[in-house]
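ping. complex inputs:
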Amino acid sequence: MTEFISANLPYLLAGISVGGQYALIAIGYTMVYGILRLINFAHGDIFTVAAYCMVYMNATMPLYISLPLTIVFTVALGLAVERVAYKPLRDAPRMSIMISAIGVSYLLQNLMWYVTGGLAQQYPTIPWISSTISIYTATTKMVTLVTPVLTLVLVVLLVQLIKHTKIGMAMRAVSRDFETSRLMGIKINGVISVTFAIGSFLAAVGSMLYFSNYTAVTPTAGAMPGLKAFVAAVFGGIGSIPGAVIGAFIIGIAENIIKALGWTAFSDAFTFALLIVILIFKPTGLFGEAVHEKV
Amino acid sequence: MKMFKIILAALLVILALVITASALTTRGTLPTLLERMDPENLAAQDAAMQKAKDRVTTALAENNPERAQRSLDRYINGFSAQLTLSGRVGYDLFFFRNGPSMLALALFLVVAAAGLIAHALDRSGRVRKLVLPAILITVLYVGVYIVENIAGANSMLMTVLKKGAIYALLAVSMNLLNGFTGLFSLGQAGFMLIGAYTYAIFSIETQSRAQVYQYYAGGIIQFQLPALVSIALAGLAAALFAFLIGWPVLRLKSDYLAIATLGFAEIIRAIFQYDGLGPLTNGSNLLRKFTVFDTALFPFAVAGVCIALIALLIHSTYGRSFKAIRDDEVAAEAMGINLYAHKQMAFVISSFFAGVGGALLAMYQTTVQAAAFTSAMTYEILLIVVIGGMGSISGSVIASFLFVAASEWWLRFLDNETMLGSFRVPLLRSGFRMVVFSVVIMAVVLFYRKGIMGDRELSLGRFRRRLSHRRKGGAQDG
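pong. complex structure:
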């Protein structure tokens, strides 16, 4: 029994930790989807930009400046992307917005490639969270323990924000019925901006935690975690924040179990297989609401 | 007039048969001809002719005209035999070297003959309309052939033409799904991967297999199929896979479909890199040493035929059903269109051509590796479709060539550090090209949403009408 635990504990811990990081990205996807019905393909790249931002700022500034500045920059980027690439297409067919999102993702990746020269950069070590600790028999980084806690705290705060503030109420209204809430006098653009700001903020925090674990930053490093976080959002029922968080933890843990079983090559494929299975049997995800098509 | 056309067609067919026969037999006849061209044999012949010539001189000296005449005949016969022989060898060598293109020429002649006969027997005048496009297409292919021979097969222009033709096929196949049927699928890279691998696996030279599959004991397939057969198999493999995943995936709505197909593409990529399939797919190692094309006419021909087939499909009843589904699914169903069957059909056919395009891409690259077929590849092709116009075949074709030319050629200078005198032009360094390029794409996506062609097609009729209209308008203004 102890052998079993000591053999599998590292994987379980890694799963919980990566699950928390996926959760932070997944919330950004799920909130944007809930409001705009848009898969924000650029979200994974915003996550990567946040990492690069940290790399470059930390080279010249002390941590207590570079850390908040990274978050501010990421939020600004998220808002800018929304303003430039999505706002002009508000009334266009959904396919056009999705294509625009793909275009932004392509642009951000090429831009990062240009700025960094395509070389992998070493992510700075953030004191305390990067320090090693040992739990029971497993040695791991502090970030593994910090992630789930921080994730849960942030999610609770976010849920409070959505449930009990005015802007939260507006968000709920917009995600229920875009047109009607517009008619009711809700300033749609403000709500959408706030949504993108929250999503980008969480992505920035997620990127700090994620890259403290996987220290090499490349222009496409965020693509795979981004896609997986999206899968988590769909798995939990897109539009639902608790759903996204639970989905992310399930996927993070399942992925690491697969790795523990020695099927590392298939850990990515498994995530997508899971997505397809859930889409077939419960297309709205675990906590999603059923949508009926009206003629 | 009708008889004349038919006779001309018959002549063309005969010419085509002669060319085909020559191209096919040349391998067999060449050795015997070379044997006769052997230096020893030639030396013997030369000696005999020298003798004949000497005899002519002696006969003339002996004042014996009859003998001189006979020797002269012998001399001339030997001479013309040598000429004929070298002509024969030249002819056979030509066909030996240009066998595939000569077969293509023969095929073209047969098609032209068929066109002539159709034109002669045509009563409705429908064939008449196709004459000009047929001539233009011929000019295009001949132009590519000529440019290739002038510019050289490895020039930048030919690179762009080859890759452009392949991307055109890929974009049109994606357009069939996204632009004409309204299914937002992002699985293109996955189907291309299946096509590229199927092609590569079946057409690696048998003697090189041990070397290519060095980590997997030479692989399990120990034969080589002809290129065209492998390409067809590549398409069929992709289509079969699309058929299998279509069942679950096509029941999903727009963005769920997008993400599910994207997921399948990722799964395919993982499977093809899986070590356990190594004897077949070579794991995550390169596949190489398979048959590649040496002339740009090959991708042009294959892509041209495939695009023509897709165009025919779109103009058929099925194509109209696809468009009805795109415009309004519920209305289409009410009209009696079987939604699932038609979606499945569009999905499978599109994947077939994506597979063929993948095979061509493998030939173009000369190596394949599963790791390269990422979702970024799908996005690239999707952006081509958008730039060309969703729902326009000619738009996709034009956009493919523009896209490839811009990214591979025209914007290259942005990647090089440039000095104007002692002034270093800012920003220009490796990677800037793609940044500018993606900004241009974003501009198209945002401000020029219909793309180059919108949902219209390039049409000679409209062009002619517009010209005449303008002329009339100009006359009124004047």
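The first strand of chain B starts at residue 419 and ends at 420.
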